[in-house]
Amino acid sequence: MKSAFSENKFIILFSTLLFVIPMLFGYFFASYISEAMNPVINSFRERVQQGDIQLTHDSIFFNNVYVGIILYCGAITFGLLTASVLISNGIFIGYFATKMPLYSFLLLTLPHGIFEIPAIIIAGSSGFIMFKFLVEFFKGIVKPVITNDEVRLSVKNRIANSLNNNINRLTQSLVLLGFSVVLFIIAAFIEAYLTIGIARLFMIF
């Protein structure tokens, strides 16, 4: 697990910036994007009120894992879907923070957010690493590194060799995805059972 983080520092940093910069943009430039964002916020609130989105552990967890899987599978879109999900989630959170006093927002999000936000970023990183694996894997099939003993590599052998040469990157992507799922489990538990209680200790609803 350690190597999955240490060998992909740049990708993790890149994913972090793709989330944090849009989040700051959504907060500080809220007035400029309100026309586009208000329908999204209103739709979210309506879904909560109608029960489409439930603040139960299972509902929160499966919703978060669904986002994590989309971030991971975004690899097949050349990482574009992964990037867009990170950016859109960052903007949404930043903009949503302007809809209430910042103190109240932090109380209602920090307890689970300290696990959920890193989980989203790490899941995004796993998607980019998976994309990197796919690029190198197919590159190894199309243009394999040939030695004198492997002049006539069959397609099957090319696939096997390319997979063997890039298996570490695939493993790292799965390790990071698994780690994000663990963080999502913790975040869902805190959000469902602790966040409101913690907030009530510090403010009056």
UniProtKB/TrEMBL annotation:
Q: Give a yes or no for keyword Metal-binding in this entry.
A: no
Keywords, A to Z, come to: Membrane, Transmembrane, Transmembrane helix
Q: Which InterPro entries match?
A: SpoIIM-like
Among Pfam families, the record links this protein to:
SpoIIM
Instruction: Give start-end ranges for the coiled-coil region(s).
Output: none
- Signal sequence residues: none
- TM segment ranges: 12-33, 69-93, 105-131, 174-202
Q: Does the keyword Transport apply?
A: no
Q: Which PANTHER family match?
A: SLR1478 PROTEIN
Name recorded for this polypeptide: Stage II sporulation protein M
